[in-house]
């Protein structure tokens, strides 16, 4: 019965069950994406009457020459390239530690998961207080260590770093839970056999745990990278609706928001969204390709 071939009736029945989700996905995900792709090519476009004067590449040419877009792109790439590996590495270290204390694992999972389920605006306001120059928790701690206070929220040299810290903190809990799920699926007998063969802790990790954890790692890396590419709420809350001092924490999503809702340049906003979509897709393909190569290499070595 399990190997029965699908029939037209069973296929239609499955589609009927999936219809509500498919309709919602088409209406609120696929169609907006197609509409944004089309809008990015509109020239002399009236958003309120939906009148398109012409089609062309003018919006992408505008982005090419816009220094503010270049700044947003540079900030976003820095944020992803720093926050993503730090988040994944810390999550893996914490998950490995929790995996050795099963009695307290549930308790710590709950603590680490709290930032993920807490409203971003609320966490942004809390971090705004932590980063305050006068009386902020971080600067008070630095003062006790003999370090001069840092104006995290008003100094353009450290504003992006403050945003990166918030992004790492917020994404940590969910990744810890995912890594723990992956570690729990690995049978302990592999590590015990490697230990009997004389493998130390590092050798057991690199030759047993890491190869078996690669599929989950791919999911976590891609998910973390996509999340960091779409950072907006954290910056909006941390800097009270601004993109940091002198746009020092301006991201691509914040640039899109400004162009659409503030400057009313709807087609430019759509074009920047297309660029963001292409960057996320490219990074996803590169990450997936790298881990496939890594898995083949580890498989060949074993």
Biggest sheet statistics: 2 strands, antiparallel
CATH class of the largest domain: Mainly Alpha
Provide the spatial order of strands within the biggest beta sheet: 1-2
From the N-terminal CA to the C-terminal CA, the straight-line distance is 37 Å
Label the overall shape: globular
Q: Would you list the SSEs in sequence order as H and E?
A: HEEHHHHHHHHHHH
Output the radius of gyration: 24 Å
Number of strands: 2
Family: Belongs to the binding-protein-dependent transport system permease family.
InterPro entries: ABC_transporter_permease, MetI-like, MetI-like_sf
Protein name: Carbohydrate ABC transporter permease
Keywords: Cell membrane, Membrane, Transmembrane, Transmembrane helix, Transport
Tags for this model:
single chain; 2 domains; mainly alpha; globular; 12 helices; MetI-like fold; two-stranded antiparallel ribbon; 302 residues
Short description:
The protein is built from twelve helices and two strands; from the N terminus they run αββααααααααααα.
Report what the structure shows:
The protein has 302 residues and is mainly α. It folds into two domains: 18-56, no CATH class; 65-297, MetI-like (MetI-like fold, Orthogonal Bundle). 75% of the residues lie in helices and 3% in strands. It has twelve helices and two strands. It has helices at residues 8-39, 58-65, 67-99, 102-117, 120-130, 137-144, 159-184, 188-196, 201-229, 233-238, 252-262, 266-301, and strands at 42-46, 51-55. A two-stranded antiparallel sheet has the order 1-2. Helix 9 runs antiparallel to helix 12. The longest helix has 36 residues, at 266-301. It is globular and about 75 Å long. The two termini are 37 Å apart. The mean pLDDT is 86. It is a multi-pass membrane protein. It is found in: Cell membrane.
């Amino acid at each position: 019965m399990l190997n029965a071939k699908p029939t037209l009736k069973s296929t239609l029945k499955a589609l009927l069950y999936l219809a509500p989700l498919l309709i919602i996905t088409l209406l609120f995900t696929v169609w907006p994406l197609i509409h944004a792709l089309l809008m990015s090519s509109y020239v002399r476009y009236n958003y309120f009457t939906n009148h398109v004067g012409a089609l062309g590449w003018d919006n992408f040419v505008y982005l090419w020459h816009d220094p503010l877009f270049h700044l947003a792109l540079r900030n976003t790439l820095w944020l992803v390239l720093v926050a993503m590996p730090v988040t994944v590495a810390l999550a893996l270290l914490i998950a490995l530690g929790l995996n050795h204390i099963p009695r307290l694992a549930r308790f710590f999972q709950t603590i680490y998961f709290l930032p993920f389920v807490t409203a971003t605006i609320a966490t942004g306001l809390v971090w705004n207080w932590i980063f305050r120059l006068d009386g902020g928790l971080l600067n008070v701690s630095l003062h006790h260590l003999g370090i001069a206070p840092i104006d995290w929220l008003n100094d353009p040299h450290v504003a992006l770093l403050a945003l990166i810290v918030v992004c790492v903190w917020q994404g940590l809990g969910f990744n810890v839970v995912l890594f723990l799920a992956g570690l729990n699926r690995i049978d302990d007998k592999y590590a015990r056999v490697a230990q009997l063969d004389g493998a130390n802790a590092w050798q057991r990790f690199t030759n047993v745990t890491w190869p078996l954890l690669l599929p989950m790692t791919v999911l976590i890396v891609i998910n973390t990278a996509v999340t960091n590419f779409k950072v907006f709420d954290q910056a909006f809350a941390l800097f009270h609706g601004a993109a940091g001092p002198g746009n020092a924490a301006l991201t691509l999503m914040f640039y899109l928001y400004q162009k659409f809702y503030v400057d009313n340049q709807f087609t430019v906003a759509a074009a920047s969204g297309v660029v963001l979509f292409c960057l996320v897709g490219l990074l996803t393909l590169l990450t997936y390709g790298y881990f496939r190569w890594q898995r083949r290499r580890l498989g060949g070595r074993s």
